Amino acid sequence: MAVQQERFRSRFEKWTGALRKDEESIQLLESTPLAIMHLGLIGLFFVGFSWVAFWICFGLYALRVFALTGGYHRYFSHSSYKTSRTFQFILAWVGASSAQMGPLWWASHHRHHHQYSDTEQDIHSPGRRGFFWSHIGWLLCKRYGTSELSRVQDYAKYPEIRFIDRFHSIPALSLGVGLFILGSVLERSAPGLGTSGWQLVMWGFFLSTVLVYHVTFAVNSLTHMIGRARFDTGDDSRNSFLVAMLTFGEGWHNNHHRYPISTRQGFYWWEIDVTYYILKVLSWFRIVWDLRPPSPQVYAEAKQ
Fold it and tell me: What is the DSSP string of 13-28?
């Protein structure tokens, strides 16, 4: 019995991460926003279903996944392409509507992750603290609640980006209010659609946001645990087809860790990278430019 209990404890700690350090303990205040977003899903049982709500949920999922992958990640974190100050602001605003803090917070912690990937200093390595910690636990810790501006001085110089980073809740709250107003208008003007203000809030804000949460978090956790490593990167990064499909290409994580400044993370034609395709189309209209490809040396290193 004692042996079985010890095995259970060991497995539990591996997947949840034993909170061993006081400065990394989960704090109630930091946990509240994420808890509210998840508890809010209960409202889905009271607002019913409509195709309007379904497609708005899907559309906002797709829009915000792109804003995070193409904006927060490939632009603000890695500067893998260039764009105008106006489109930079749009990427920051839409990304912040995902309720994943501001662009400077997101980019600064991601740059820290690349510098110390899967070492004791890595903020969210599953090898260090387990699946739960890497997936969501570190977000509930007060220690990582502020932006490390020294790591993102290239974008912190823009006052409008600092504003969004500081008041990152405004885009998210604006989205929720806008959905409620839209649903209320449709309820009165087109009752045959079967939607309402609260229905669009539950589907378009709460459900869509939680889905975006977990596919984004899966890049931190699952792509350092499962999948195939094409390159020797010195860390546990892996390529995952499933995560790539859900995140518009972010699942080609081992590729990304080998050459982080590449705009394209699916290095081969069969590695579907929707975010890159969108950025490529935007480049035709000069909305973005100077997209960085993987270097020839990278391809020469690939394992067959």
Answer: HHHH-----GGG-B-H
